[in-house]
Amino acid sequence: MLKTLFFILGTGFLLTALSILSISEAAVIAVDYGTNWFKVGLVKPGIPLDIVLNRDSKRKTPSVITIRGEERIYGTDAVNLGARFPFNTYFSLKQIIGRLADDKYVQAYQSIFPNKIIPDPLRGTVLFQHNETTVFSIEELLAMQLSYARELAEATAHESIKDVVITVPPYYNQFERQAILDAANIAGLHVLSLINDETAVGLNYAITHFSSFTEEPQYHIFYDMGAGSTKASLISFKTVEIKDVGRFNKTVINMDVISIGYDKTLGGQEIDIRLRSYLAEQFDKTYEGKLKESIFKSPRAMTRLLKEANRVKQILSANTETVASLESLHEERDFRLTITRSELEAMIVDLVERVNGPIQDVLNNAKMTLPNVNSCVLVGGGVRVPVIQSKIKEIVGEDKIAQNVNGDEAAVLGAAFRGAGLSRQFKVKEIKIKDIASYPIKVDYESELKESEDGTMKNKIFRTILFDEYTSVGTRKIMSFKRTSDFNFSINYGNLNENILNDFGSTEIATAKVTGLSDIVKEHNDNGIEQPKVKVTLQLSDSGIVSVIDAIATIEHQTISDKIKTFFGVNNKSDEALKEVPFSDEEPAPSDNTSQSIPGENNTLTNDTEQIQKKTESIPLNLEVEYVGITPMGINEKDAAIRRLRAMDETDQRRRAREEVRNNLETFVYNMQDFLSDQIVIKVSTDKQRKELATKSSETSEWLYGEGEDASIESLRARLHDLRSLEKPIVYRRDEHTRRPEAVDTIKSAINNTREFVEKIKANTTIERYHTDEELDKLLNVCNKAEKWLDEKLIEQDKIEPHADPVLTTADIEKLLREIEREFIIVATKRPPKKKVTPPVTNDSENTNNVNNTDSDPKSTTTHVEETPAKHDEL
């Protein structure tokens, strides 16, 4: 404030402009949640799309959570606690979310980690028995990590965040995807969309290579070996011209996912597990006959070994040899072993042979060969293992390996870009994405009861593929029937090959019950209706979730007058017949299951009635959908989980608040010795004041590490308040003593500059003056008054001791300075009066003649302004 006298006009304008431009818009985050790590992307107005740093200033966070009592620990701290509290630390939840507790993947998980798993009594899904009285659903544990991811983003964005895009493997089915959505809902997040991992990577590739695409399609394989699985997607990119604003066109990128391949158990963690087993065997062999029990029976030791195996693997990716070393690993015995890269490669020979599987699958499914592929983009930590990378190069050719993508962060950045587009709050480069579903979905439904040859009433079961494999997500399909009675149908995964079925789990998705149709038929039975047409709409969402939208009955009937007109030959022009398709997202067309025409009793009117303008009425039917297989979390379950997480959040907030106060108190006590020994502090305080503060500080230090170890936040705040109340007067006098000379120089400079400004105006004789003497004198009087006051206060200040409260404060100087500024602005911003302009005298007759000759004037021209499209800043 003290230095703004001659800059206040410009600064004020800048602040005004910024306030106008600061429009409140919500931020969006993306979470790339992996088996071992998760990354958070943030897009917000004013902040470039980037990765959110965690509290260790790292760009990725371990996907681990430890719960001790009411405290939750995340990330690296949780990993470190895992060895001490293996039963209360939860690793690699991504591998078993959305699965039944007796699933083979859950059994495999239990062979790696010691957590106790029990089945949910209602859903059969995974529950973790945390202790004797507490269980956590897997959705709750994932929700805690998603909530933590949001906290990190909010600390960067400085605002609350709701919208999120989450990456998932392309092989996730309905149940796994729904579990992710349930977890996000518990965390208080609104999922804009789930996005397949490689689709997100491909989107990031499209952003960073936007200018390299042409009308000729490019085909790229995105190969992603993560910790838990390996996926590959074949994606095409090309440019297309579409209509833009006005008469202009614009170029956009078409990004089409053509096919996918995967291996659910081929990943970096499998390498870690094999290396851990080898290390454990070597430990038992080293101490053979000296151990009470095998190291394999110690959850703590095996957890430590798994962490060490991962470290060794990373080192061997860059070196040919390293040492595994752990102190007091098991039964107070140390372990040290040299391992070579060749030894590690010998452990994973069969895994290396499986590397080709996902690549071959995407090519076979797309009916393409490698020569048609432009490049293979490698993603994920698993591809850094030299033998894995060499195998991929051998398969696709080294010249096709792309090195121009950030394999660690491409997915989360692509997902964040997707979130920016879906939020509709950002102008982004237009990339049209066509993503696909991984599995075909079928519908089973029953036909109307009909009399069979043996005289009994029977119906038929129809099974029809509703969404084919590789159907585009975001698609709607319509089932059409001609029925007169209520009916049921079921939605299931269908046509799955044996390899997929072996580890797929439940194939049943939902059953639906459509009612109200029988009542409609009965109600309109006397109105001459034809057999009602029923349309049931189903949707495969952008997140890959299939749902039933609605069921509508359409009836056509004639009034009595219509029939009379027809009988007498008065034919109405009919509407064009509505074509229907049993399963269509386009204009319906005739289907195989549509009932055939049956001759009616009134054959004489058949030809005439076909041309009658029929009245159509659409009536919504009752629709009850029950999810089967692995059901989503119920409303009551979800509400209970939300309440529990909120309670834990509040406990965390109270604990963090207490830790913050305690840290502030510790810092205060620690810094007190330096504060009291400062020469300026000694000058502006008395011996008694310093002694009192030193004594109080020493007492607080002893209390803090004794009785105050578990003190409440109120007690800690009271202690800190008492200390600060003693320190505050000293700090005030120190600051005044330090800042006063600069403040005095500033106001003196302002007074002198203002006087010079007035003198220049008064001395100006060449330009017409527009400032009055009264205005200039008023400004000088303010300066004179300020100068007199300052001189008097300086004399008074010199008479008192430095440890006394000052009589000349910087606050008083600033107040006086603002008075000078105010009067200065009035004078400096005064505008000169406008000069009177006398219009030239013109000849009226000449003007009249000129008006009529305008069109024939050879100098008259028409200017054409070329229209150009508006430009926008883009992400």
TrEMBL record:
It comes from Gigaspora margarita. One of its GO terms (biological process) is endoplasmic reticulum unfolded protein response. The keyword Chaperone applies. Keywords: ATP-binding, Chaperone, Endoplasmic reticulum, Nucleotide-binding. GO terms for cellular component: endoplasmic reticulum chaperone complex. Residues 864-875 have a biased composition (Basic and acidic residues). Pfam families: HSP70 (PF00012). Residues 581-615, 831-875 are annotated as: Disordered. This is HSP70-domain-containing protein. It comes from the Eukaryota. CDD domains: ASKHA_NBD_HSP70_HYOU1. SUPFAM superfamilies: Actin-like ATPase domain, Heat shock protein 70kD (HSP70), C-terminal subdomain. Coiled coil: none annotated. Residues 591-610 have a biased composition (Polar residues). The keyword Endoplasmic reticulum applies. Residues 838-855 have a biased composition (Low complexity).
